[in-house]
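Suppose a colleague, Dr. K., hands you the sequence of a protein chain of 182 amino acids and asks what its three-dimensional shape might be. Before reaching for any lab equipment, you can write down a predicted structure in token form. Begin with the sequence itself:
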Amino acid sequence: MTRVACGEVLGVWDDDVVDGGEVTVMKLNWRGEPVYSWQGEVHAREAGRLVLRAVWRGPGTARVADGVVFAPGDVFYEHYYDGKPYGLWQALTPDESALTCWYCNISTPAVLRDDSIAFRDLLLDVLLYPDGRREVLDRDDLARAIDEGLDPALAVAAEDAVREVLDLIDRRLPPFDYVAPV
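The predicted structure, expressed as tokens, is then:
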């Protein structure tokens, strides 16, 4: 299935990705330039949904917010959905015994083909803490990108996606059906 918005292809979804296979994830910036890539294994797959298990390999650590740092060995279960403008990443300690956070990356819909998945990062992120608190990150980065030429329709799509993710959290819909109340 292909979706077109703002005059460009935003998402192609191939439901034939092999269970248990390795997938390369490619994060592009809002301009479509490669930023970072990593490997994940298919953990679960059903029509329109793919969950990868990936291990943070760096480079180094990444400070996401006050008290939230991703470090080598941290495990991520990355949920991607056909046509959805986000990836919902459950971040766990290396032994998978404790939730670090849910990091909800706002993006164009993922393009899934063969053994790769790619998306354009739309800068905003929703951070859901283990105790149920949530925070929207990087609004200043979105404002700067708009000044630098980000298509206004993509900025609106990013804000709409934040509202959709917050609604999933508030209504405790999967994958947030076991999140602690605030």
